[in-house]
Structures are given as structure tokens and as C-alpha cells.
Amino acid sequence: MEVLIKHLETICKQHFLNEKILLVDSYMIGEQILRQYTQRNNYALNIKIKTIKDLALDSTSNQQNQLMSNALGVHLVYNLLTELKPGLNYFHELEITPTLSKSMYLTINQLRLAGYKSSNLSSEPFVSPKKGDDLKLILEAYEQLLHKHKLVDEADLYRSSLGKYDSRNQIFILQSNLKLTYEQVKFLEALLPPTNFYLPMEAVRGAAIPESSPLSKVVFGDETPLSYLSDVENSPTTVPTLSLFSAKTEEMELKEVIYRIKEKGIRFDEAAIFYTSSAQYVTAMYHVAERLQVPVTFGEGIRIGFTRPGKMVAGILAWMKDYYSVQAFLKLLQENVLDLGDDAPSKRTWATLLRGADIGWGKERYLTQIQAKLKESLGSENRIRDYEWILKWFATTFKHMQTAENNGTINYRDLLKTIHYFLQNYCKVSSAFDQAAKEALLERIENLLPFSNESVVNAHQKFEEDFLTIRIGHSRPKPGFLHFTSYKNGLYLNREHLFIVGMDNKRFPGKAGEDPLLLDTERGKLGRFLPLEKERTKNDLYSMLQLFASAAKNEITISFCRFDINENQNISPAYLFLQCYRIQTGDFSADFKTLQENVPVINRSHPLEIEDWWYEKITNSQTTQLNEPFLADFPNITRGLHAEKMRQDPAFTVYEGKIESDTTSFDPRKNQEITISAGKLEKIAKCPYAYFLENVLRLNVIEDITYDPTKWLDAKTRGTLLHEIFEKFYQEMKERHEKPSYSKHVGLLTKIANERLNDVKKIVPPPNPRTERLESEEIIESCETFLKIEEENSEQGEPLYFEYSFGKDAPAVIELPTGTVHVRGIIDRVDILPDGSYHIIDYKTGSSWGYHTKEFFKGGRQLQHLLYTLAIEAHMGMEAGAVKMSSYLFPTRKGAGKRFVREQEETTRTNGKDILDKLLSIVEHGHFTMTDDENECTFCEFKKICRRSTYDKDALKHKQQDETAEGLKSFKGVRAYD
């Protein structure tokens, strides 16, 4: 910058009183140049900062047509492509998406700024004449849109301004390497006065100069030591003031920069951090700055998704896309982005009431289900008042939320109005970033609203592309703030301490690609300064080299991240990083191996925040650093470390389900208030530890009704439905005194099934007609299978009871060798056989996997047939042996109509009672070990709590063989029964 400031001083002295136009790419660049100029006691008299767009706007101040924003341009092109697609020959197979529309808009913009219109664009330069014809057609439709809506784009602006700017008595001072298009060059050539100057920059050696147009001159001044970064072999001197390091992650890299600023006592406004790629670094810097309370200005802004308005909009869209599911709404509520007012129920109350209302999804169900809860009038006055508040809120809100049309489209204007309503009425704002985000969203909505009255298929996706890609909080460097921006914006920034992060070979200078809409070969033939994609990496490299050359007097630190967490692979430094090492050390023969050996990987022992301290302690192999005196202040961590240690101990301990206190209250033989069920006993047999979590610790898994377009009824609802259909059918048969006949009764059974399906629809709405039809057909098919099976077996017995219940009022009392237990349950059906004995039938509506003819008990996992046999005999006062058999019937497509019969002989009863005693012995001793079969864990709902996968397999095996634990012996005894 030295050479630039000196040249500017000379110009201003020679033309002290003249009006001087400082022509730059951006206003921020002009401000930075003038700030450095005035910091040297110069007066910026009669100097005006202008971009070329400013000059064009000054020339057309009376322009009646509105200058179109880029956001509106992308939106209009989306609609244009949707309408034109059937008539296109080259692009007709492309899906019209918001991303494609944005790319096409940029292509149109580039072509028009290169001086092309539909009238003068030839098909010859394109790889296919059809492509050229399509682009001409698109350009023509675009031009008609501009005319229709009385809009002008940038190309129109420069054409209409040509020759109208009055530059008399002005001196033009041009930034070096101005980025100019063909139309801008024409406009500038027509207005440039005879007296104009280019501001020189420090020389760059060994790199091609990227002059893109006749007026985009690169003027060199003096050389600096860092002018030789691309030509280190000829460097006259080393640059020891350069500093280099590497870090394991982007966050650690940024924290090291902040640590160095702190360590050296550098003021934040004396330093700047430049990144090579915004993707990971802006995110990481935002969160690090938030946690450490570091004042940071972001040159390119931050993602709107970091802000509360951005999160709120994303949450509303997710809720709408999920068909207004309760689960999606509660997730939005937990984000703490909605301002519902002081009188609103708490978030916990919202969650409890909405889950308790069995809403699932669908706007209508919020209203009908909450109204149903209010009609029940169950609960306290507070609960009723909360339900009324929530009902009123949803009723009001849903009036402002559009519904999708029958073909799945949404009117885009209605969607914009919905989000506008939420932003105006419920958006929580608690920072400057939040306020900027809210204003940006509202401004863009208002910009698009007049042009958005069309139905869109992927409206939510389009809104995300149109709005959630906005970046807010763009800022120039400010006093007292650390500045964070791209290296491309750093050339004119005057800060003494510069840090360049992300200098790895993936991010810098990146890879040259192709724009499929306008290939480099086509750009080359079209000419007129259209930028070539293959030149982008060269230009980026030159920009970085120019930055180094200009900042040679500053203290510069370069770094890179060694590991890509997303790709799970190591990253190598950029070639320029190696060049920096060579010019720093004077070792011009150094290679990447030299870098690996000599550039340190930062591992700070003095952390910036408490998480860093804990990370270092946890990952350090010397765990003795966490000594007892220190841990005395952290009792929870002390207990956690002890638990981790005991989990590796070969003995069965309290950390794997052992209870050392009195277990009398959990044992149904000793606590007669407990009624046991077949499901709970089978749960003990499958995994005692899962039973312990659910029934001793009373942990409950929240079962949210989730929206799935391919699924309507869950297994439980489906099973209940089929049971009710079968019961209703047999009640009808009993009244008619008829036996099941497929030809005679299939119509009756189908009628009952359809009636019950309609009832279920009111409680659980189907996600769409197709899924409803498919699942309804499968229910009917299962009913038909059931009827065929019943016809075949109708002579074997006569149905006597359906849904026989015991335990709710009077439990069944079963005598076991070690005591009595109270049992509850519901038997699907009880038949009386011709010989006067009884046959218990249990319908299973799932797959028959796991059931076999000879495996009666399956290691205790199948006990229902025995327990129900003993229970009904006891409950009805029958003689022992009155129930002759018990069956599992699978009358569905998955079950294939299979039946598994368990003869209730004396041996079966004796073995079964022994299994029951052994299972209750596990409870008695409080030895709830984990299952010995990992397959039981596949669908277990307690996997995250159990953490079985973290145990050493041998250690767990030793624990389960602990001879001192009687409950473990009982568990092994249960497993011995097939």
C-alpha cells in the first residue's frame, strides 16, 4: 500500500481543488484507501468514492423503471424457466430447481453485460445449435419480462447511461485491476476525461497479470521482499517476520490465532483474519467469537441461519413440510426463537399438552383434538386454561397459513405472507444480528411479493433458496473489533497484524471447474471479456500474491488445518504455504516433508475456554492429572470416573443393573399390589437390564407420532385394529349361530373392516390417499386370510370368549413353587373344544419370525401361552389341565397364516413355572444383567442409556459369569429352556 498512498498524495497535490473521483470495485475498498491516506495527515479534499454502478445511477437519476435486485431476478427466471421448459430443445430434461434458476440468472446476466441480447446472440459459439437457440429463447422471454414489469437490470442501466455522464472538470483515479464487463467498459470509455490515473500496487514477480479488459490495468510500483513468493529462487532476502503453524481442526486454528493476539497484547482493531474459504471458517469463527465474547466484524457477513429469525423461518418451513407435525413444531419451540408473549404456557406445558392430545399432524387435528380435550374437562383449571390459550393461538395462526392445493402446489405469494406474518408477530430478536436478519427477510419478502402470484411445486425448497441463503451483518472494519473476511477483500485493509487461515491444498487456490450453462470454449468464442472458469484459480492466486506483496511490512501469520472432519482424512498444505516457508527460512529446496517436520501442530497447554482444558485432560494419556484433590470440587465427574472404572471390573456391579438395597417392593410374590403381565415377564427374559430401566427406574421413551408419507398405522395401532375387527366378526357369528365361511361371510368381514378403518382415520389421519389405500388393502387381505384359516379350523372348536380380561378389577392369582403372583392380561379368544377342554388363541399381527414348532419357551422369551393358561384356569376356577392347548395365530400377509400350537401338558406346565420362578428370582436378588444375546439390542429403545457397545466384550462376559450373583444363575437357568 505504500506505493499507492504515495501516488495518491502526488495526484491530490497536483489537483488539489479539482473534484476527484476515486473509482473502485466496492465502496469498502474506497473507504480503506482514504482511511490510510488520511492517517498520514493528508486531507481528502474533493475526493468522492464511486463504483461504476454509482456513475451509471448518477447518469439516470430520472429513470422511471425500477432497477431489479438479484433476488427478484432469480425469482423471475424460475417462473420463466417453468413456463418455457416444454418448448426448450436442449434444456428440456433439466429439473427446474431454485439452484438451476440462480445459475441461469447469472448466465443471463453475464451474457447481457457482455452486450448480448436475443437479437444479436448467435447459436454458432455454442457446442450445440439447440443450446444456442434455447438461450436466445430464454433471453427473449427475459427481456419481455423486464418490459412487462417495467424493470431494468444492470446491462440496461449501462446502455441507457451511455454518453450521459458529465465528467467535465473531474479527475478520475482508478483502482488497479478493476473488474469490468463489456458494457461497463463501453460506458466508462465514453465518460473518462483526458486526465485520469491508475493507482499502482506493489510488484508481484513470477505470476501472470490478470488484466481482463483494456481499462482493467494492473500498474506496478516498487518491489517488496514478499513480491517474490512465486519466484523465491530469485528473492534477494528472507522474510523471518512470517510465522507459520498448523492445527488439527478449523476451530483450533482460529483459537490459536486469538491466543496469539492475546499473548502478544495486540489490540483487536490492530489485527485481521483472512480466510481462503468461508464454508467452515465463518461458522467456526462465529461460534468461537460468541463463546469467548470476542468482538468481531464479518466482512462478508454471516449465514442468516445463525440468527433467531433465520432459525424461526427454517423451523416454520420444516413444520409445514412435515405436514404440521407436532414433533416438528415442538422442535421449533425448543429453538427459543418464537416470542409468544408473557402469558403463554411454558415450553414444557406445550410439549406435554400437545403430545397428550394425540394430534400427530395436520392443521385441522390441532383444533379438533384440543377441542376434544377441552370437552373432556379432565385436569386442573390451569391445564384447561393452557389448552384454551394454545387452541386460540393455533386457530389464529392457521388463518395466516396456506394449504397446499390438490396437485401439491402452493401459491408462493401466500407462503411469503405466512412468513411475513410470523416475522412481524412472533419473531424473537435479541441481538444486532437478529435485527439485521429480520429486516433483511422482510425487505426481500416485500421485494418479491408483487411478482409472486403463482403456484409452485417445491415452494418450501424455493423459499429456502431465496431467503435462507441470505448473508447478513456485512461490516467494514471497526475500531475495537477484530476483522474477519476473505483474503480477496484484504488488499487495501490497513492492519498491522494479519492472519491468513485455511492455507491448505483443498481450499487454496482451489480447483478450476466448468460452468455447464456456459462452457469456457463457448465463453472464448463469445469473447467480450466473459470470464473463463479455468482462469479463476490463477486470478485467486494472483490476488493472494498481491496481498502478501502489499503487506510485506506487516506481521503475517499463515496457517492451515491438517484434518477434514467431514471427509475423515488428512489435508496437506497449499503450495503457497511451502513457498512461505521457503522465503521465511531461506531454504529454497524445502519440500512438503520438510514442512511436516518443521511446522508445528499447535497443541496449547494454556486453553482459552474451559472446554479446551477438559479436552486436553480427557485426551491426554496421563490421566493421573485428574487427581483426587482437584476432583473433590467435581463430585459428578468423580462418580462418572468411578462408574467407568467399575464397568471394566470383572465383578457384577451396581453400574450394570445390580440393586444392593431392599428389593421386596419390586417382587410380585412379596408385594401383592404388583400385578405382572406376560409382556413384563418376557421383557425380563429378553433383557433384565431393559426391564430394570423401564420398571424399576421407571424410564419412559417419548413416543412422538411422526409424519411419514409412506406409513399410516404403526404396529401397535394396526394390531389393535385387527383384534377389534376379529372380535366384532365373531360376535356377529355368535349372534347368527353360524360358523365362518369365506364365500358366505367375506362381505361381512370386509364391511366390519372398512367401518373400523373409517373410525381409525378420525384418530390417526393417513398421510395421503395412496398410503391409506395400500394399507387398507393390506388390512382387508389380512382379514381374508384370517377368514380362510377360521373356516378350515371351524370344526375343531367353538369360540366362547373374546378379549377375555383379567387383572383390571380382579387379577388372576397363580400359584408358583415359591409363592403366589397376581397376573393381568387380555386373552384374544378362548374356544371350547368338542371334548370340553379349552383352547386359548392369541392373534399376532406381525411376522412369525422367531416362532418355531418345537421351541415352546425360547429361553423365556415366549411365555404368554403358559401364563394365560394358568391365569384363566385360576381366574375362572377351572381344574388344572382344563386348558388343553394354547396357540399363536398369524392371520396376516407377514405372518402368512401360520399357527403355532403349544400343548399345555404337565411337563410344559412344570417347566414353565420353573421359568417364572427363576425370572422372579432375578427381581428378588436385584440382579438385572444385560442380555446375553446382542440381537436383542437391535430394536431396543434404551440403547443410548445402556451403552452396551462401549463395554469390552470379555469384561462383560466375565460380569455375567459372576458366581456370587444368584440372579445371574437364575438368568442362565431360564436360557436353558428351549
Sequence of strands across the biggest β-sheet: 7-16-15-8-14-9
Stated plainly, the CATH topology of the largest domain is called Lambda Exonuclease, Chain A
Integer count of domains? 6
Determine the number of helices (DSSP H or I, runs of at least 4 residues): 35
CATH architecture of the largest domain: Alpha-Beta Complex
Q: What's the alpha carbon Rg, rounded to whole Å?
A: 38 Å
Q: Give the CA-based shape.
A: elongated
Keywords, separated by commas or semicolons:
Rossmann fold, 6 domains, 6-stranded parallel sheet, alpha/beta, 978 residues, single chain, 45% helix, 5-stranded mixed sheet
Compile the SSE list and pairings:
Layout: H1 2-14, E1 19-23, H2 27-38, E2 47-50, H3 52-59, E3 66-67, H4 70-84, H5 98-113, H6 129-148, E4 151-152, H7 154-161, E5 170-174, H8 182-191, E6 196-198, E7 243-247, H9 250-263, E8 271-275, H10 278-292, E9 296-298, E10 302-303, H11 308-321, H12 326-334, H13 347-356, H14 363-376, H15 381-398, E11 410-411, H16 412-425, H17 432-448, E12 455-456, H18 459-467, E13 471-472, E14 482-486, E15 497-501, H19 520-526, H20 536-550, E16 555-561, E17 563-564, E18 569-570, H21 575-585, H22 592-598, H23 610-619, H24 628-631, H25 635-647, E19 675-676, H26 678-686, H27 688-696, H28 715-736, H29 742-763, H30 769-792, E20 798-806, E21 812-816, E22 819-823, E23 825-832, E24 838-843, H31 864-875, E25 883-890, E26 898-903, H32 906-925, H33 943-946, H34 953-959, H35 966-975
